[in-house]
Amino acid sequence: MRDISFGQYYPVKSFIHSLDARIKILVTFLFMLSVFFIVSYTMFVFMYLAVTIIIAVSHVPYKIVLKSIKGILFLLIFTAIINIFFTSSGNVLVPIKLGKIDMSITDQGINFAIKMALRFTLLVIGSSILTFTTTPTELTDALEYLLKPLSYIKIPVHDLAIIMSIALRFIPGLIEETDKIMMAQKARGADIDSSNFFKKIKAMLPVLIPLFVSAFRKADELADALDARCYNASSKRTKMKVFKVRKSDIFAFLGVVAFVVIIFLDKYLVTSLAGAPDLGGFKIEGLDILIYNFFKLAV
Predict the structure, then answer these.
(1) How far is Cα of residue 218 from the mean position of the Cα atoms in its chain?
(2) What is the gyration radius of the CA atoms in the chain, in angstroms?
(3) Quick check: 259 and 50 in contact, CB under 8 A?
(4) Is 291 exposed, middle or buried (0-12, 13-18, 19+ CB in 10 A)?
(5) Which of 113, 158, 171, 177 could cross-link to 80 by cystine, CB 3.0-4.6 Å?
């Protein structure tokens, strides 16, 4: 449970921490959008180098950021299996026949699986950097500001921001509560650390039930506290911290925009100009084509 990164804040002073929360949300959105347009391994390398530099500048330990990837290991493995066994394009490496079902492992399927794993990893790392360097209050205030135009069509943006703020504040408490319940169940003999997947799911039931009970109890206590203080999520409420866009925020935003433009050029311009080589069904795109042609000429 300690590997869940979303909603956790790492308190340290850095350039990334000092950026405007609105800019960081926009930058993260552009980053996550551009990840799905990366087609070449060369651009993946550049993206991972950029992420490594950002983590270093943020002063958040690499170990803590990489821990967040553990939470998606099952998803990574599942998507890799789907891409490997259900991608028919490309050169067949291993033909598989199960009764009347014909499948095959192709080089293109392995290619898709690797790229999808790289994309998911980048998405998790990007969201982790955002939550590690931005407090929950700043996140909700920034989201409320960015979604403010929706209030003109009668969408309660402020109420949604309050709900999100409360939810983010509950995450660390729920993680701590889950750890306590798991340790209590282990003391009672529960085999939570079993290597068997189905036994582990069965052992988690005694953990989930008291966890839900505790969560609902805390929600009731919070609601009573808000009522006792006559809290009203009115749009006229003021903010303790007022957002101000500085030059550093503009430079950071423009830098990410430039990187996104390079990714789109790599996908659409470089591929069309260079022309994909004939590899018998295996497809390479973007800067990988130029590198392939360079090594082909060198050899």
Answers:
(1) 28
(2) 24
(3) yes
(4) middle
(5) 113
Digit-coded pLDDT (tens) for 84-116 = 887 777 777 777 776 666 777 888 888 888 888
Q: Which of 44, 32, 35, 33 is nearest to 284 (CA)?
A: 44
CB 121 within 8 A of CB 8: no
Domain limits for position 151: 136-238
The enclosing H or E element of 161 equals helix 157-187
Q: What is the model's pTM? A: 0.77
| CA-to-CA dists, residue 24 to 16, 18, 204, angstroms | 8, 10, 36
Within 13 Å, how many C-alpha atoms sit on residue 65's CB side?
24
Task: Give the tokens for residue 18.
Answer: 């000092």
Contact 181, 207 (CB under 8 A): yes
* Pair (197, 270) in one structural domain: no
Do 51 and 128 belong together in one domain? yes
Task: Looking at the structure, tell me whether residues 65 and 181 fall in a common domain.
Answer: no
Same domain, residue pair 217 and 70: no
Each residue's pLDDT tens digit, 57-87:
999 988 888 887 877 777 888 888 887 887 7
Burial 168-186 (b: 16+ CB within 10 A, else e): bebbeebbebbeebbeebe
* CB-side neighbour CA atoms (13 Å) of 181: 20
Q: 3-class DSSP state for residue 229? A: coil
Question: What is the C-alpha to C-alpha distance for residues 101 and 200, in angstroms, rounded to an integer?
Answer: 32
3-state secondary structure of 14: coil
Residue 195 per-residue DSSP state? S
Residues 190 and 157 in one domain: yes
List the structure tokens of 274.
């260079």
Closest by CA position to 7, among listed 133, 125, 122, 120: 133
